[in-house]
Amino acid sequence: xxxxxxxxxxxxxxxxxxxxxxxxxxxxxxxxxxxxxxxxxxxxxxxxxxxxxxxxxxxxxxxxxxxxxxxxxxxxxxxxxxxxxxxxxxxxxxxxxxxxxxxxxxxxxxxxxxxxxxxxxxxxxxxxxxxxxxxxxxxxxxxxxxxxxxxxxxxxxxxxxxxxxxxxxxxxxxxxxxxxxxxxxxxxxxxxxxxxxxxxxxxxxxxxxxxxxxxxxxxxxxxxxxxxxxxx
Length: 232
Hints:
Blueprint lengths: L7 E6 L5 H12 L3 E3 H5 L9 H12 L4 E4 L6 H5 L4 E5 L3 H20 L17 H4 L1 H9 L5 H11 L4 E4 L2 H14 L18 H4 L26
Protein name: Adenylate kinase
């Protein structure tokens, strides 16, 4: 557990592990600006930026004084963790993640059939019927293989970074960590101006989160139970 003030936090984890939900709650509890990498990577028509362009975007994000960055993208994870004060790794069991993906897919399909705006988070450039969202088989396969493939590629960067890597294997440990980080975070500075503001999360305006955001955690005089911390 980190006891220093934190103002730059990276959130990693398998699809279906709850990264976006955790990041929304963390942003609500800390006041730090939130960026979803999926919002910036996926563009209308299922297009994506070139590798050099994407690396420049990530460098621009991490140069900021404070942020929460949600997303994996193993090719640029080193850029992010080198600038982070804390790295959160949501490492839930692969089949729990797969089950969460199935439930989310059913909700998205139901909303599409009823002509309703999705309540679940969707990347800004994608619709519910675009392949990266619609392909449940591919998403479940990615969740099932996250530890053996994507996390394996991230491990060298995580092992080399100076920031603590805070691994949560359950929802309960994630909730404890959320309370701890909310108490250690630096308050949000003035909102970014110009083009920088376009990079920040707009989920509250687009209503793509799963229901209302959680209330900021209450400050308690009782000591917070430690969360198991491991460097992967």
